[in-house]
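Kindly review this record before class:
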Amino acid sequence: MKKFKISELDCFSGVKAHTIRVWEQRYNIFKPERTIGNIRYYSLDDVKLLLDIALLQQSGHRISFLSKVERSELASMVEELSDIESIPGKAINDLIIHMFTYEIEEFEDVLESCVHVLGVPATIERVIMPFIERAQLISISGSSETHFAVSALRRKIMVAIESANPRNLSQKTALLFLPEREHFDLILLYAAWVLKSTGVRVLYLGSLISKDAVEQVALLKNPDLIISCCAHKNKLFSASMVPFLLHALPQTQLCILGREKDLPLQPYSNVLYLSYLKLDELNQVEVVDAVI
């Protein structure tokens, strides 16, 4: 049976590790087991309990009350949350549990239900992207449960890209790719959807793209934006891809996506480091002259 660290519970629920420890001591909510090295670890039942409590807290219930309620009753209280604002939180919690219990059909049913109730844009922005962050799917961990979840999410975002039909078309063209040895493209697909939804013409090369292939397409299409996402952004610079593109296409804005806390200082005036949580800002990017 899979075990979870307290840092994972923190990420899944948004409840800080310190608060979880306080709840253990004050309310006896959790009784984690410990490793030989005295490190706490938690069960999937503990994860579900914490997710239920965190959601009910957001709905106005106090922890002093929730700590006295039976687990089955807590689950019933969560099911009874019916306001539209509770739907994304409930869906994210369900996706986390379904992912770790390998309930593939249930996982996809949650996504379909959200699309039906919230629509595609809200499902992507309020359910899928927060789930990716909270379930720590920013990079592939190699576990089987993350692979099936990523596959389901990719299909949903790709369908949204195909069906995007903006009223106003932009004159901008964006070239999107992941460099060699980078294959996790959920964030890049999200960027493609954001851009296409607002009328930008998207040229999506995909993942594992060589330096030569990017250079060839970029010189041929002369895009206004080149967008990539890389776990280690220095790979793009060390491969000389970025310097080449900036010299060859001085009017092109290069945008490298990442997590906000990981964004480095920018060494070039027309290289933009942008948090994937702020992709709406892509439409505000102005093409500037390169200073290299």
In short: The longest strand covers residues 201-209. The chain has 13 helices and seven strands. The radius of gyration is 22 Å. The CA atoms of residues 58 and 86 lie 9 Å apart.
